[in-house]
Amino acid sequence: MVMGIDGGTLDLVVPWSQSGELPNLKRLIDEGVCGKLRSTVIPSSASAWTSFMTGKNPGKHGIFSFFRLIPGTYKIGITSGKQRDGKTLWSILSDAGKKVGIINVPMTYPAESVNGFHLAGYPSPSYRDPYFSYPRGLGGEIQKVFGSYPAIPNTRGRLLKGDVDGAIEELCSAFDLKEKIFYFLKGEYPSDFFCDVITETDQAQHFFWHLMDTRHPRYDPILAKRHGNVILSIYKKIDKFLGDILEGLGEEWTLILVSDHGACMNHMGNSLLQSWLINLGVLHVKKRPLHHFVRLSRKMLRMLQPVARDFLPHWVRDKVKKLTPNLALSTNEYMLGGTSFNEIAWDKTKAFWLWEQLWINLEKRQPKGIVARGQGYEEVRDSLRTQLLQARDYKTGQRVIREVFKKEEVLKGKYLDEAPDLQIFWEEGSVISGMTARREEELEDRVAFSREDDIRTGEHSPYGMVILWGRGVKKGHLLSNAEIVDLPPTILHMMDQPIPSDMDGRVLVDAFEADFMKRPIRYEKAPHDGSDGCEETYDQEEMKQIREQLKGLGYLG
Predict the structure, then answer these.
(1) Which of 129, 245, 341, 417 has its CA 20 to 30 A from that of 512?
(2) Which of 83, 92, 197, 54 is nearest to 505 (CA)?
(3) CATH classification of 2-266+459-465+525-552, choosing from 3.40.50.1820, 3.40.720.10, 3.40.50.300, 3.30.2350.10?
């Protein structure tokens, strides 16, 4: 049985377990194996959960983020599980005659036809969609029993409206309903392999980190007194859930807890990199009459809206809303750090930023690419890497970026050309007050600032967690050097199945007792399953529903 905890981190689990807040997690750690789990290069849920289910790095499975550049355009597409290249762990087990049950794993829409059942995770259309579940009528069956299936809580939307209590209540209610559905499906569909992912942790950490961490610039002791335990309360719900599961788990079972990435204070790098590229002079914005005045006016009005919401009478707030329509950043602007692709002067631009992805405006790949392939491409990448590593927080003087890699240094596979050109690893533990950039011809630094509307105070970190407990697992052992791609080969070996040769991961031999590992690890040539990835085929209504999910998660404005 695999229980996924989206964004789960030992940085929180270990101290809370040791202090008595999470007794069942403490039991699993004391009686099993635990360790940090290296995520994918971009620690995005989209790429990481896909690597978890395929055992492949993103260069092989083709999923790098929830967002992607549509090839040959400057248009932004939303990634779906249809674009995944490679067989999933549960598909392999199904073909081997094993019964499987899959619930809420991100990037699995459309649900696969498996030997068992499958409920797709986000991003996906409504549970009423026929391809949300397998068997195809399972979504409707759940609706009859429970009245609905929990949607992704609109945490960001509620918080922007000042409804903190509503945001917390929605998170907790979604968790509670999913727990009931878990037990219902577990009873209705006995399985040899069961996988369920809890996503409320990730949302709680994104939006409530500042009320838990006294180092955060937005920490407010008064608000923290009321809402400072939101993240802990979600972990405590998980802990109780795990305790109930342990009571009903037979001796023949092994329980694995896994997270797709970790969590930390939001450094705000995603919100300011596009502005930093403008300051550096490698990204240029079109000059239009009154353009800067309009943008500044919209920016000031967006800043005034929270003031109106919090301090003005109800009838005045309504007037303000009517007088300031459509002030939210567009989807395009939100993902790009406040600058729309339509505003970029592509004939002058060498590099651009798309939500965790740094791209070179490369000739013959981008429609108006100006950077020549070969030496020109390498010179731009080398220059950007140097400048990124030299960037400082303008107040503290501290480095803001730990490492920068060229994509071929950390990825491999046939989708390498579709990967972002540079991979950035940010420094953790602080919020960037402003990021410096200096052009060659200038003596003073320019400073890029993050967006005011990015209310995510927690961010993903490169190391998640893994805990193994049960049959054949060592007791009280600390696991090292584990990666998320190691889970599929490990699980296949545990279930006495051969491992496809195209998986990048390895069996976590060090997690098991010697007697359990006497059986030799078997490999087989990876069969071609026809899953080459395809262009997105969401219709208009499906896209609307998926955008709402990603807004609630904070990925869209």
Answers:
(1) 245
(2) 54
(3) 3.40.720.10
